[in-house]
């Protein structure tokens, strides 16, 4: 038997295994290489455009270029709203690694007060387009800019950006007429054109700024820039320049606006002056005003609350939203209505015993002169402001015809063409009362309307517009604020103007004008002291609006009442009568009779416009008003 040796190494087997493994390894390498090459081919060839675009987005950024907001001038070229250079704090959320930590650092560096921190954080969360900067803070101070520059390396995604910021040189006296711009809020952002408002952080909120927002804003542009890995701009690759907003020239005369504001002297009230032939608003003041510049960058909570809590309501635009009983200022308009309806003639005379009574009613509706004016025709009824004449007229016309004719003068309607936020006030009617109170209209309520009381409410702008229509002998021209947009003159003929008021006889206008002129020049005129030494013919009508109703036999005593319970003083005027160049309405709250306070203010406005009276002494005028308080009776 042959011996078997123990074989320690099988060379043949090892070679076979090695070859098998090498083959497998080769197949794997080939497969991986093929996969890699296929992937590279896919990326480089098939997806070439996609990845080129992504690469460009990492290196190239498109930035919006906000347009420069148009300037606002008065009719004489004086600047009313300008743009001043300022520095804003901007944040691109997508480039911030830790938003909370960044905001905490900014609060510390800027030394923000505690009450402003929450608003600061809220702005950082405001929705914007991807990579579009959010405005955190406007009008940075030099010290704040320095702190941010020193800590720039700790603030990725945070930039200090130079921009133009709205500024109002005469903020107080023009706060209501111009309005103001403010930061775009989330609600506005949802309705704005995202392309045109990209990069824009402010928008018109009230007044002219709001109404002419589209004109003043302009068209946004864009630029393409190259950035580094940190998002810093290296160079500009191309741009489309923005189109600046159009400059706006208003009908407002700054000097007239200033005079009106000074005449009111901080008292609650309003003065509106209109050029009758064109409808151009020369002045529109609501007092007291407020500093509109504080709203541009964002007013702090405490200051805003103080304005809201102020009993004088400085944020309330009395000129277009204040609603007051017109009082006796409407008597010339009522006389026109009576003539148009044939209810009265210029020569009709009534006997005034000092009161009026409805048939079968014991209640007496008192004239302001308790013993009466005796025989009164139409002209004298306007001159002495006789109530009994207009009680009688209102009763004979009835509320339906009164409502129709007074709406023809613009009462109960928005009369301004480009006046944002105007109230229609209230011209009462039978249908209105049924809808409002579910009650019928009573004859006694018509009597109250006959002297501009009861439910009737007007705005100062409505009164000025109606006075302009009267001065125009019935021709309607809508009041407007814009004189030119850019270089384009705005015409006086505007859409939706009310129909002209036509009377059967032109002489009737003359007779009403004669009564209105005697208010200032007649021996019995309620504002005869105001008309002393007039250098032109002026028509006017005083009015007194009750803050609360008196009982039938009660007498009004201002000295016994709190100041805010006293009557409002009103006056409307136009001049010169033969060719009216100005129509004015004045309302001074709680000032008493309109024949003193309000009449003097209307005279001062007319003098300034017609005589270019630069020597007017406002202090002397105030003393004269105080001396006249007790010397002229009537309203």
Automatic annotation (TrEMBL):
The active site is at 328 (acyl-ester intermediate). Residues 65-237 form the Penicillin-binding protein dimerisation domain. This is Peptidoglycan D,D-transpeptidase MrdA. Pathway: Cell wall biogenesis; peptidoglycan biosynthesis. It is found in: Cell inner membrane; Cell membrane; Membrane. The chain crosses the membrane at residues 20-42. Its main location: membrane. It catalyses: Preferential cleavage: (Ac)2-L-Lys-D-Ala-|-D-Ala. Also transpeptidation of peptidyl-alanyl moieties that are N-acyl substituents of D-alanine. Its EC number is 3.4.16.4. The keyword Transmembrane applies. Keywords: Carboxypeptidase, Cell inner membrane, Cell membrane, Cell shape, Cell wall biogenesis/degradation, Hydrolase, Membrane, Peptidoglycan synthesis, Protease, Transmembrane, Transmembrane helix. GO terms for molecular function: serine-type D-Ala-D-Ala carboxypeptidase activity. It is a single-pass membrane protein.
């Amino acid at each position: 038997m042959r011996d078997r040796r123990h074989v320690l190494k099988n060379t043949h087997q090892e070679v076979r295994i090695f070859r098998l493994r090498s083959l497998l390894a080769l197949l794997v390498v080939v497969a991986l290489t093929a996969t890699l090459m296929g992937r590279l081919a896919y990326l480089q060839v098939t997806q070439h455009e996609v990845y080129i675009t992504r690469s460009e987005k990492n290196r190239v950024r498109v930035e919006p270029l906000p347009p420069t907001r148009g300037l606002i001038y008065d009719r004489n070229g004086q600047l009313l709203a300008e743009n001043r250079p300022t520095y804003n704090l901007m944040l691109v959320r997508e480039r911030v690694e830790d938003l909370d930590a960044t905001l905490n650092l900014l609060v510390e560096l800027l030394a923000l007060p505690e009450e402003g921190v929450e608003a600061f954080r809220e702005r950082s969360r405001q929705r914007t387009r991807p990579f579009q900067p959010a405005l955190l803070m406007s009008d940075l101070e030099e010290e704040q800019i320095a702190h941010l520059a020193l800590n720039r390396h700790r603030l990725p995604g945070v930039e200090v950006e130079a921009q133009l910021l709205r500024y109002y040189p005469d903020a107080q006296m023009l706060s209501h007429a111009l309005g103001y711009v403010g930061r775009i809020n989330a609600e506005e952002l949802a309705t704005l054109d995202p392309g045109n408002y990209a990069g824009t952080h402010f928008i018109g909120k009230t007044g002219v700024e709001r109404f002419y927002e589209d004109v003043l804003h302009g068209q946004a542009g864009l630029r393409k820039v190259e950035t580094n890995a940190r998002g810093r701009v290296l160079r500009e690759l191309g741009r489309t320049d923005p189109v600046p907003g159009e400059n706006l020239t208003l009908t407002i005369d700054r000097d007239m606006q200033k005079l009106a504001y000074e005449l009111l002297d901080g008292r609650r009230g309003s003065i509106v002056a209109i050029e009758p032939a064109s409808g151009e608003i020369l002045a529109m003041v609501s007092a007291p005003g407020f500093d509109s510049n504080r709203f541009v960058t964002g007013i702090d909570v405490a200051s805003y609350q103080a304005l809201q809590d102020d009993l004088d309501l400085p944020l309330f635009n009395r000129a277009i939203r204040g609603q007051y009983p017109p009082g006796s200022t409407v008597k010339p308009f009522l006389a026109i209505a009576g003539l148009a309806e044939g209810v009265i003639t210029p020569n009709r005379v009534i006997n005034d015993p000092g009161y009026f009574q409805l048939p079968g009613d014991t209640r007496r509706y008192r004239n302001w002169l308790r013993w009466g004016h005796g025989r009164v025709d139409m002209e004298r009824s306007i001159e002495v402001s006789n109530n009994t004449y207009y009680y009688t007229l209102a009763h004979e016309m009835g509320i339906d015809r009164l409502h129709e004719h007074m709406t023809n003068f613009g009462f109960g309607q928005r009369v301004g063409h480009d006046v944002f936020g105007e109230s229609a006030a209230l011209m009462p009617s039978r249908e209105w009362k049924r809808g409002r109170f579910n009650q019928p209209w009573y004859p006694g309520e018509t009597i109250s309307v006959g002297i501009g009381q009861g439910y009737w409410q007007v705005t100062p702008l409505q009164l000025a517009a109606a006075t302009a229509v009267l001065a125009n002998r019935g021709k309607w021209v809508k009041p407007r604020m814009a004189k030119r947009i850019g270089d384009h003159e705005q015409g006086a003929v505007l859409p939706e103007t009310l129909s002209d008021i036509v009377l059967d006889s032109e002489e009737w206008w003359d007779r009403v004008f004669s009564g209105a002129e005697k208010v200032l020049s007649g021996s019995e005129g309620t504002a005869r002291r105001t008309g002393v030494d007039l250098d032109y013919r002026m028509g006017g009508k005083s009015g007194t609006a009750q803050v609360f109703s008196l009982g039938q036999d009660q007498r009004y005593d201002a000295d016994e009442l709190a100041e805010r319970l006293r009557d409002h003083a009103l006056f409307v005027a136009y001049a010169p009568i033969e060719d009216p160049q100005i129509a004015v309405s004045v309302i001074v709250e709680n000032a008493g009779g309109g024949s003193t306070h309000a009449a003097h203010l209307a005279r001062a406005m007319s003098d300034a416009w017609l005589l270019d009276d630069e020597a007017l002494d406002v202090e002397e005028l105030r003393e004269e008003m105080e001396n006249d308080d007790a010397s002229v009776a009537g309203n």
